[in-house]
Amino acid sequence: MTLVHNWHLGRTMEYPYFESRPEHQFTAVFNINRCIACQTCTMAHKSTWTYSKGQEYMWWNNVETKPYGGYPQHWDQKILQMLWDNGNNPMEWFTGAEDKNETTAPYGLYNGDTIFELAQNKGLNQVAVGYIPDDKEWRFPNIYEDTAASEKTNYELGSSKDKESSELPEHKRWFFYLQRVCNHCTYPACLAACPRKAIYKRKEDGIVLIDQKRCRGYRKCVEQCPYKKPMYRGETRMSEKCIACYPRVEGKDPITKGRRMEARCMAACVGKIRLNGLLSGDYKKPDPKNPMDWLVHIHKVALPLYPQFGTEPNIYYIPPRWAPRAYLRQMFGPGVDEALDKYAAPSRTLMAVLALFRSTQTMIARFEVEDGPKIYESEVMGKKVEVYNDTAIGYASDGTELARIKVEEPTWESDEKRMVTY
Amino acid sequence: MLRGLIRKSIFLGSAFVAMFFIYSGEGFSQSLEQEATVEENIPTEEGLTVKFADTDLEGAADALANASSYTVNLQIQDRSFPNGGGSVPEVEIRGVHNGKDIFLGIRWSDATKNDRAIKHEQFRDAVGLMFPLGIVKISPETPFSPRMGDRGKTVNIWHWKADWERDLQADGGYEHMEDQYPDMFHDFDSDPHPCIFNKTVHDSVDLLAGGISAGSLLSLPRGRSVEDLNAVGFGTLTAQTHQDVNGAGAWSDGQWDVIVYRPLKTEDENDVQFTPGKSTFFNMAVWNGEDGDRNGLKSVSIRWRPITLESSR
User: Fold this and answer.
1) How far, in whole angstroms, is CA B151 from its chain's centroid?
2) Mutate: best of B120, B208, B291, partner A, most A CBs <10 A
């Protein structure tokens, strides 16, 4: 094992390989608040990559209803349980000012065991803790769809502060949709687990792939990926996983004329919840004009999924406003409160960047905001919110303008005569 | 004198760097392997004698039944991550040759027959034989890693797989998803005569990518149950482009009986070659699919054992 820095945890941790970050990192921001679970992303994925024999059960992209849903069933409860039952200081975070650092520890310091550390501390003689879901657990990808948690869960969770923030006047019961793809982790557990080094992380864009010429179907990756995104294909006797639509990311699709293109599940998003792009390679020097860097590193409104697992996942989420805070902190770490404060009363830049979501299927490498007039003023949770009709402009990495969009969506009212004609 | 001092400092400096590398070996090798022991490079005294028998493939089983057996003790694989196995304490091996081919009969106890690897949670039973490539001397002074070989010290591995054996019996020489899940095209269909609409749709699509387009032996009918492989250390196991080993296996009453055979000599430079009257070494491993054994999770023999071929008459 070597020591590597995991900025999600705000500390170094044990990992079988040296820290080796890619030049750019494939990433996406999912705004959970906007998702309607139409599963268009899921079908875009399915019809592109997993429509063949042995892949029937495979959904590299899936949208599940939290808290009960999960594909494979109970994947996160099971891993959390392992950490909770056996790990040191499970789920313990220090979030004082002295534990934080703007770039290397933005959420604070995680004091518990990661999946790697737990395996080592317990002398399990493998790189991480994990399990292989059986075929019944894979069978119902959308089980518990739209099943709300009982009203009771709001009160059972934690202090009065938690209750307060989870209780919106209209909604006593809650659920939300969790969009899941491979996280193309900085420290992939699948890669660490593979005894053959058949899994590799690309230097140019951080995409994690299984070499189908090297794979021998041992399923150690299936066992040790905590997010359960490598999957075994019985027909070919080997494992497969999300490939981040890498031909599109490389710009091989002629539609974007050689420029990097968003993955299929991202570009297909009807609810405009997804923005797909690349993070700068050096997390200590985020580029404030790169929308991904800005959302994740600078504004910190988008958070990693289960950072405590220790793999430094690279898909980031804007948490839902209506779910209990304690549940959200368990899922997205202690950055939840700051992120939700910022999302509930959005800044001018955040409004502009959110407008860029799904405005183009070419990856936006740089954005600019042009000032517009103030159009709206309100108060949200005691905070004043002012909305300006600014213009967000997205550029490709070669400087080409890709999208120019105003914060206020333009609307037109049809002529009364037209209404009559129809 | 100054020149001497510079020379000395360069020497000491490089010695320091070398020691640093040696003592921080774990970090630099990026591996989770134990140090090799001296014992690993001392082959056992006793070994397998492969008798000459005037037999062909048909008579090989009988000839093997008459040959004396040699027992190889196995233990848990605890030298490289992930550790595991150890549920099979020993394996019995017999050998005969007819001057052209070598036949090895392998037998071990296994209460459960695991001969499929289609479901996520299914793992196969298997047995492996490992030989050093070329003519080698193995001793603590001339080490040859019994752990899948080493750089420049290639091993040749013959790997019999229970699911490959079962594939041989299947239509087209390969088991498909529907062999494991016979109702996969109409799982929720209550019609006693279900239409095969889904199946026709399914079959109209070419199999996409994955192991099939990679041309992996695992993913395609390969007409044999033994894989011919090479390795130069942990994690390097690679199937040969030229497959030369054949075999057959059957399970009954809690016991696997497997025969593997190959011509004594092959054209392939990556194959171990056998000469009557000469000996080389071998090591064995058994995988118990019921216990989830695969890759390094296996029962292994640690020390090399001699395998001696009797002169042809």
Assistant:
1) 18
2) B120
A213 contacts B32? CB cut-off 8 A? no
User: Is the bond leading into A346 cis (omega within 30 degrees of zero)?
Assistant: no
Rounded average pLDDT over A385-398: 96
A131: confidence class by pLDDT, cuts 50, 70, 90 = very high
Q: What is the CATH number of the domain that holds B143?
A: 2.60.40.1190
Cross-chain residue pair B207–A18, CB shorter than 8 Å = no
pLDDT digits (tens, 9 = 90+) for B212-255: 888 899 999 999 999 999 999 999 999 999 999 999 999 999 99
Overall number of domains in chain B: 2
User: Which two three-digit tokens encode residue B109?
Assistant: 């106890």
- Residues B216 and B234 reside in one and the same domain: no
Q: What is the pLDDT of residues A342-356, one digit of tens each?
A: 999 999 999 999 999
- Whether residues B170 and B193 fall in one domain: no
User: Which of B30, B119, B207 is closest, CB to CB, to A135?
Assistant: B119
Supply the DSSP symbol for B99: S
d(CA A272, CA A265): 11
Residue with tokens 């999924």, as numbered in its chain: A305
Chain A residues within 8 angstroms (CB to CB) of chain B? 1-2, 16-18, 49-56, 125-127, 132-135, 138, 193, 195-197, 212-213, 215-220, 222, 231-238, 240
**Beta pairing, strands B101-109 & B255-263:** antiparallel
Q: Could you say which of A51, A195, A234 has the minimum Cβ distance to residue B82? A: A195
C-alpha torsion angle, residues B142, B146, B149, B153 (rounded to 10): 20
Residue A371, judged by CB atoms within 10 A of its CB (0-12, 13-18, 19+), counts as exposed
Pairing outcome for strands B299-300 and B75-76: antiparallel
| pTM of the model as a whole | 0.90
Q: Which amino acid is at B73?
A: N
pLDDT for residue B185? 72
Contact A127 B206 (CB under 8 A): no
Residue range B53-80: mean pLDDT, rounded? 94
Q: Is residue B238 part of a domain?
A: yes
Q: Which of B81, B202, B215 sits opposite A53 (nearest CB)?
A: B202
A134 chain-B contacts, CB cut-off 8 A: 119-121
Q: What percent of chain B has pLDDT over 90?
A: 71
* Residue B155, in any domain of the structure: yes
H/E segment holding residue A330: helix A325-332
Cis amide linkage into residue A304, ω under 30° from 0: no
Nearest to A318 by CA among A365, A273, A351, A367: A273
Cβ contact, residue pair B120, A133, below 8 Å: yes
Q: Domain containing B207: what range?
A: 182-220
Q: Which residues of A touch B177 (CB under 8 A)?
A: 53-54, 56, 234-235
